[in-house]
Amino acid sequence: MGLLDGKVALITGGARGMGAAHVRLFLEEGARVVFGDVLDEEGKALAEETGATYVHHDVRNPAEWERAVATAVDMHDKLDVLVNNAGILKFRRIADMSLEEFDQIVDVNLKGTWLGIKSVIEPMKAARRGAIVNISSIEGFVGAEGLSAYAASKFGIRGITKSAARELAPFKIRVNSVHPGAINTAMAMDPEMAKEVDAEAFVKSMVIKRFAKPVEVSHVVAFLASDRASYCTGSEFTVDGGLLTGAGY
Ligand SMILES: NC(=O)c1ccc[n+]([C@@H]2O[C@H](COP(=O)([O-])OP(=O)(O)OC[C@H]3O[C@@H](n4cnc5c(N)ncnc54)[C@H](O)[C@@H]3O)[C@@H](O)[C@H]2O)c1
Q: Which domains does the chain have, with CATH numbers?
């Protein structure tokens, strides 16, 4: 028996990185999965390989949310899990960042998450249950040089998560946030960030002294999406190898 048997899940930003790991693990655990992204080539290839359904879905666009949700409901008659995973990062100090760059990050990471929650309320109400997992970051708890917009968006996700948890509890919809630390994906290897951050010192400051594999986050996301997390809502789950424990970071 799979942890997610019988569940229908929509995962954003699922074409690569952690989103792709969530797609694979959710399928392994018995869910039927629809995933979206703006990287159509990678998305279609993953769909072909795994049997999940890919939809072009820019999380900034309300009409594309409608289409992604409708795809899941039309194919599988319901939608009971949303993973708001899509995100972007740009390393830029405030003095050098343009307002357009700030807006881009907030639009994808924060407004995209809010739009996602808004878009699944009706189908989850209809299903009489639901689980929403919002991917924030350790930068949802602490600031970091060069990441003001990113941190603002990831702090914001905590606020949206808690407000939504309160609003949606009457409909048996749980809403939680996950806060990954250093995970081995294209985002963490961002070339501009690599130029500026002393990677060796960063790894030394960790408690578990390595980057995580994406699937190590997927296991926590799958737990929160499952009925095993029935008493968890409005909560924050760090998957950071202990990064946030002390003064090292
Ligand atoms: N990698 C890390 O160390 C780390 C740490 C903490 C949090 N996170 C968060 O985890 C999530 C996944 O990141 P990742 O590390 O897998 O990075 P990634 O860049 O590999 O994956 C992000 C995915 O989101 C997609 N995406 C970007 N803009 C989009 C949009 N407008 N609409 C739909 N999809 C869009 C990308 O195309 C990509 O497939 C992000 O929310 C990120 O902020 C990552």
A: 8-245 (3.40.50.720)
Q: Is the CB of 87 under 6 A from ligand 1?
A: yes
How remote is the CA of residue 108 from the centroid of ligand 1, in Å? 10
In this structure, which residue's CA is closest to atom 19 in ligand 1?
A: 187
Q: For 104-151, what is each residue's pLDDT tens digit? A: 999 999 999 999 999 999 999 999 999 999 999 999 999 999 999 999
Does ligand 1 have an atom closer than 6 angstroms to the CB of 37? yes
Query: Is the beta carbon of 84 within 6 A of some atom in ligand 1?
Result: no
What is the CB neighbour count within 10 angstroms for residue 32? 21
Contact 38, 88 (CB under 8 A): no
Question: What are 203-223's pLDDT values in tens digits?
Answer: 888 999 999 999 999 999 999
